[in-house]
Design goal:
Elements lengths: L6 H8 L6 H19 L10 H19 L1 H7 L3 H12 L15 H16 L1 H6 L7 H9 L10 H24 L5 H12 L17 H15 L2 H10 L8 H23 L5 H16 L14 H13 L12 H18 L9 E3 L2 E3 L1 H32 L7 H12 L15 H15 L3 H14 L1
Antiparallel strand pairs: 1-2
Helix pairs in contact: 1-6, 2-4, 3-5, 3-8, 3-20, 4-5, 5-6, 5-19, 6-10, 9-10, 9-11, 9-12, 11-14, 13-14, 13-15, 14-15, 15-18, 16-17, 17-18, 17-19
């Protein structure tokens, strides 16, 4: 991490922002010093337990956010809380921002925000696992702890390397596609980094509306969808020369949900908001795609929409993109498994107790005991998602009472942060209380790691005090 975070220094030199060299240079320096200190710890003879891997991943992500906040603290003199919020939003691909003026921010720090999202897209741990010289249970545990279960190569290290190679190629293609809209190269690079990472940071305070370009918005749609697709498909296309988007359940579900979202939003904006057909189509296509792919881009504010339309968008943000992608949310694979589990449960209710009802998943029959465990674990995570949104909303409302925003807007922001989406009604702003800002920091952290690693960390801390 110390090596790769040297790249923004090149941006500082290119734009001659010499005053940014020290604030930005502190990031790789701290990474190197911390990494060197950790290397002095003796390696245990046995592989670490899964709980240790979970705890390590949770600590790695939070530490990265603290280190990533240093340039904002030193270079912009932002408050510590706001700076950690900005860095956590970057690393977790959320896209919510507390920068007072994006346009007045040095280009070095704007690139740092985009670069954090690009690195965080596939995961900090996935990046480092790709650089280690061997694969083992510890690496596999770390890899899975980031919410990643895909393994299309025998070695986790090989999987990590393949994913990053594919990621780089798609990013370059995305830059070329975005340049067709006529935006400057600087803007295209930053938009591509954050779009393929389904992050959502931009280099202007107005965001996407700054460009006032329908062409740019339509060109960003396939990039956002590409980031939310399962990367296993790209591996099959690149290495095996065989793959079909319409042969993958998650890919079909993602495209189907995007089309359903566009259709419903278009109708709502026409009949409930009364806007013209082209504006309604433009907003519905872009916002529905941004919601289901968990990308924080927006070409309008949901605050201006009817409450029912805003709540409808929440459902798509909760679902999120595919497993094995850069997207956040519960993941389409988890939703599909939950639906399969419900259907299996109802089938067993309406037959004889002696009858054996097989559970089929992805065309294969799964043993009953394994199916019950996996379905139960899956439903537990889904329940924890809704519980976290509920608790997070209550906590924010306690810190931000009274507020000009309706409760639906607050729920929208919490879901956006927890599912690492970034679309905002305007509730998240630098004037929020410190307590509310820290709730959002923890919610983004929880969501990026899909809850369990952070819970394991907290349980371990509590047990340690017993």
């Amino acid at each position: 991490m110390g090596f790769v975070t040297l790249l923004p220094l090149g941006v500082a030199a290119y734009f001659e922002e010499w005053d940014m060299l020290v604030p930005m240079g502190l990031v790789p320096l701290i990474f190197v010093l911390l990494g060197s200190a950790l290397l002095t710890i003796p390696r245990p003879p046995r592989e670490a337990r899964l709980s240790v891997a979970f705890t390590a991943v949770a600590l790695i992500w939070f530490t990265a956010a603290v280190i990533g906040s240093v340039p904002f603290i030193v270079g912009l003199h932002m408050p510590v809380t706001d700076s950690i919020f900005e860095a956590m939003s970057g690393w977790t691909d959320t896209g919510l921002t507390l920068l007072p003026d994006v346009d007045a921010t040095p280009k070095t720090l704007l690139f740092w925000r985009s670069f954090m999202q690009w690195l965080g897209g596939l995961g900090i741990v996935a990046f480092t696992v790709a650089l280690v010289s061997r694969s083992g249970l510890t690496q596999r545990g770390l890899y899975r702890s980031e919410g990643r279960s895909e393994a299309f190569m025998p070695s986790v290290v090989g999987t990590g390397i393949a994913m990053w190679r594919i990621y780089g190629i798609i990013t370059l293609l995305s830059i070329g596609l975005i340049l067709l809209s006529g935006v400057p190269v600087w803007d295209a690079v930053n938009l591509a980094l954050t779009a393929i990472a389904t992050g959502g940071f931009t280099v202007h305070s107005e965001g996407i509306p700054y460009y006032d370009s329908a062409l740019l918005e339509f060109l960003l749609v396939p990039v956002m969808l590409a980031g939310a697709m399962p990367f296993k498909l790209y591996y099959l296309m690149y290495y095996k020369r065989k793959a079909s988007f319409f042969g993958d359940r998650q890919a079909v579900a993602l495209l189907s949900l995007a089309l359903i979202g566009i259709f419903v939003l278009f109708g709502d904006l026409i009949f409930l908001s009364g806007i013209d057909a082209f504006s309604a189509f433009r907003q519905s296509v872009f916002m529905a795609t941004a919601a289901i792919t968990s990308t924080g881009f927006q070409n309008t504010s949901p605050f201006t929409w009817p409450t029912v339309t805003t709540l409808y968008l929440i459902m798509f943000m909760l679902i999120g993109g595919s497993s094995g992608s850069t997207a956040g949310g519960m993941k389409i694979s988890r939703v599909l498994l939950g639906l399969e589990g419900l259907v299996w449960w109802f089938k067993r209710i309406f037959v004889s107790g002696k009858a054996i009802v097989p559970f089929r998943h992805e065309g294969r029959t799964v043993q009953r005991n394994i199916a019950e465990v996996e379905v139960s674990k899956n439903m537990l995570i889904i329940i924890l998602y809704f519980l976290t949104v509920f608790v997070g909303t209550i906590a924010v409302l306690h810190f931000e009472t009274p507020t000009m925003f309706e409760s639906s807007n607050v729920i929208f922001e919490v879901v956006s942060a927890f599912c690492n989406n970034g679309i905002s009604t305007g509730f998240v702003n630098p004037e929020m209380s410190i307590g509310a800002k820290w709730v959002f920091i923890f919610v983004m952290w929880f969501g990026r790691l899909e809850i369990m690693p952070v819970l394991v960390l907290f349980v371990g801390l509590i047990k340690g005090f017993d």
